Backbone:
């Protein structure tokens, strides 16, 4: 009996020692896991990479088993890391090229004044002569022909020339960039978007508005030049989302008075050779179904040996880049 008691005492001492070792090892494992978690930014599954070993000691048929020895921990990311790249050629939100300058605003004011002069003089002349039919019909014709003019001009700069082309180079380069980043037009400020056309209208229309005295001619010139000057704004609205456009604009688009979003969207799809008109879009179906632009392209090719861009497969300059918003990193 006396020999059994020391043995039991030794067993209990051994168990307490092993329990203490197990506690220390578990704390060490927890500390290592916490250290790893502080350096790992992604969720992970933590586990032991090998099975635990065990040891046993036998004392008079009593077996003790120490806690498993802690093994090195590893982790598997639960989700893959995906890098989102945004185009470094366009900083959309802070791009100064999309902002209006005071020079832009000055030209815009000049263009609007230039358009108002013939319209006001036409109205005054019609009021004095009590003849409104002529100016009203002329205004409608000006509106219709402005859409045709916008389509022919748009077709020309889309298919011919380059950024180095005299006079039209900047417009050609801008429209090529527009095909790659069409959504940037909705980010342009008003005067920034229209100042080039406003400047052209000022130089060409102002002399007519000041010196012409025929109310019918003045009505035609005023409406036609006004629609051409604002065509880029109509174009911008055609790229806008329905929820962000004013109700009056949506109503005019639905009525066919302004070019619709659906109609102009077809211009930005392969083969990029249709729906060029951007005022009302009235002429788009007529010109496309009659192959009018294809005929002009054939004439240019056989006469001058120049191929339009629409005859070639779309390259990187034509393929639209999707807008990707950068996502700020969470902390």
Residues:
């Amino acid at each position: 009996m006396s020999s059994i008691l020391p043995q039991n005492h030794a067993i209990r001492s051994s168990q307490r020692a092993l329990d203490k070792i197990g506690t220390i090892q578990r704390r060490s494992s927890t500390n290592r896991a916490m250290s790893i978690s502080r350096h790992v930014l992604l969720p992970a599954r933590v586990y032991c990479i090998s099975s635990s070993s065990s040891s046993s000691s036998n004392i008079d048929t009593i077996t003790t088993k120490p806690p498993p020895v802690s093994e090195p921990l590893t982790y598997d990311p639960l989700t893959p890391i995906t890098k989102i790249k945004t185009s470094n050629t366009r900083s959309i939100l802070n791009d100064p090229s999309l902002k209006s300058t005071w020079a832009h605003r000055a030209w815009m004011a000049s263009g609007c004044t230039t358009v108002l002069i013939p319209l006001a003089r036409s109205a005054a002349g019609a009021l004095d002569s009590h003849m409104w039919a002529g100016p009203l019909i002329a205004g409608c014709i000006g509106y219709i022909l402005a859409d045709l003019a916008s389509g022919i001009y748009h077709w020309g700069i889309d298919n011919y020339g380059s950024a180095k082309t005299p006079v039209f180079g900047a417009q050609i380069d801008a429209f090529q960039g527009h095909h790659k980043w069409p959504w940037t037009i909705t980010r342009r400020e008003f005067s920034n978007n229209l100042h080039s056309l406003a400047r052209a209208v000022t130089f060409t229309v102002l002399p007519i508005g000041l010196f012409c005295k025929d109310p019918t001619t003045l009505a035609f010139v005023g409406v036609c030049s006004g629609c051409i000057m604002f065509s880029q704004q109509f174009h911008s609205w055609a790229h806008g989302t329905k929820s962000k456009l004013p109700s009056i604009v949506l109503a005019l688009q639905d009525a066919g008075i302004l070019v619709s979003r659906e109609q102009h969207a077809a211009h930005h799809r392969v083969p990029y050779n249709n729906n060029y008109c951007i005022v009302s879009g009235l002429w788009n179906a007529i010109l496309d179904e009659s192959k009018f632009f294809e005929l002009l392209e054939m004439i240019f090719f056989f006469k001058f040996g120049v191929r339009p861009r629409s005859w070639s497969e779309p390259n990187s300059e034509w393929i639209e880049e999707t807008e990707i918003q950068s996502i700020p990193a969470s902390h």
Observations:
- The chain is about 55% helix and 5% strand.
- The longest helix spans residues 4-39.
- The chain has two domains: 4-77, 100-311.
